[in-house]
Amino acid sequence: MNSPALDTLAAGDAHSGAEPGARRGMPGSGDPLSAGDPLGPLGPLGPLDLFGEGFVRDPYPWLDELRSESPVHYDPGTGLWLVSRYDDVRRVLLDPARFRPDNALHAVTPLPVGALRALARAGFTLPPALANNGGPSHTGLRRLVTRFFNAERVAATVPTIERIADELLDAVRSEIDATGGCDLFDSFAQVLPCRVLMELLGIRGVDPATLIRWSDASLELFWGRPTPERQRELAELAGEFHQWLTATVSDGGHPPDSLVGALARHRLPDGEPLDARTAVAACFFVFIAGQSTTGQLIATVLRRGLTEAGLWRLLPHERGLAEAWTEEVLRREPPVTTWRRVTARPVELGGVSLPEGAQLLLMLQGSGSDPEVFADPARMCPHRPNIRHHLAFGAGRHRCPGASLARTEAAIALRAAAGRLPGVGAAGEEPPMLGLLSFRAPLRVTVRR
Q: Which portions of the chain are predicted below pLDDT 70?
């Protein structure tokens, strides 16, 4: 079956057994990397399962152990090298020549034939565009996208964010008045960034609930560990998303100052126009980052704000507190917990010799709790001096272009919710958590009067 989806997302040689593992330097493969896994099951913590309930619920003991004892640690469950110290993570992010982004969007769990067929039927493909682009076309594409999320545009969007937040919180208050409680994840945190993005980019002809469903399905399909049956269901939704994006990009009627219009006019370094497949891939990344991951950030910021003693009542009144709290949540509990890179040639990292083609997992969440960089890292301290030094948005040429918008939306959402819902508190139960390879957030933020 010929499908571009196979080329980019099946990630065959990342999951296909002993021979590819030996090529990457799997411990026990007869190369110097056999010494890169000194902890085995991470000492007293037992086996590390990046998708397990224990790690998803409370990853910090494992992250602390990795940083202190095995900062470049081979994980046989995923075939990835876990990089957890701040300096090592930052070094990788700032050196795209040695540590390439080619594997950033590969499927974590091998896609079964049924899922691949569904993607193929939809013409699904993700050629290098933004997050997975280490080539010469990246600079121009990133510059184009960044123009839509720069500081000036974000400042101009603040009234829109505040208006939508107020509209959503009106409905939240009505539900609380009627029932005594409400889930801020479904009713507020998820919907706010989706509606803001739609207005900012001029998206029409689709409702927010559909975009959220497509985006979340894509995240789970490519960064989760779903069953084969679930993968087929998710592939159908991701295929629908891709077909809608393709139709949107191919429409031709978009204003020149819109994202799609700008992509249509964009020229590659050789002077050729940007092809439709790459334009769709750029939109795919922008939509998921602008919706799902920002919604996850807002959910985490709200949850942590509700459970921090005394904070909720101060947020509407203390200038800058919502922004500072958002930044501290980004450091300690970012929605994008990890990101992937692959070595372009043999290299030493954290005292471990890695071969060409080693698949790396940068533990962004772990780097934000590195005591060598952040004093008393487990304590939430919104006014710490180096609060902006975290790597939640990456660093270097692949740093998230929507960082300013995400920060602004989260702070406005937190301040607005605390101001409009002064008498609520977090429900007592622990919420279920989204536990994908690179994404983590509470899936419920239940409040009660």
A: 1-44
Strands lying side by side in the sheet with 446-448: 181-183, 446-448, 425-426
Say how many C-beta atoms besides its own lie within 10 A of residue 3's C-beta. Answer: 18
Q: Measured between alpha carbons, how far is 294 from 336 in angstroms, rounded to an integer?
A: 10
* Angle, alpha carbons 96-99-101 (nearest 5°): 75
Spatial distance between the Cα atoms of 221 and 216, rounded to a whole number of angstroms: 9
Cα–Cα distance measured from residue 296 to residue 247, given in angstroms and rounded to the nearest whole number? 28
What DSSP string describes 285-313? HHHHIIIIIHHHHHHHHHHHHHHSTTHHH
Distance CA(48)–CA(185), nearest Å, equals 29
Q: Two tokens at 289?
A: 């980052």
Give the span between the Cα atoms of 234 and 84, in whole angstroms: 30
Least Cα distance to 393 among 186, 191, 149, 203 occurs for 149
What is the per-residue pLDDT across 363-378, written as a single tens digit (0 to 9) for each? 999 999 999 999 999 9
Output the DSSP codes for 133-169.
--STHHHHHHHHHHHTTSHHHHHHHHHHHHHHHHHHH
| φ/ψ (deg, to 5) at 126 | -130, 75
Closest CA to 442 of 311, 351, 347, 335: 335
Burial of 175 (0-12, 13-18, 19+ CB in 10 A): middle
Task: Please say whether the beta carbons of 103 and 133 come within 8 A.
Answer: no
Alpha-carbon Rg for the chain, nearest whole angstrom, is 22
> What contacts 294, CB < 8 A, 6 or more positions away?
193, 335, 402, 405, 406, 409, 410
pTM score, whole prediction: 0.90
Tokens of 348: 């030493």
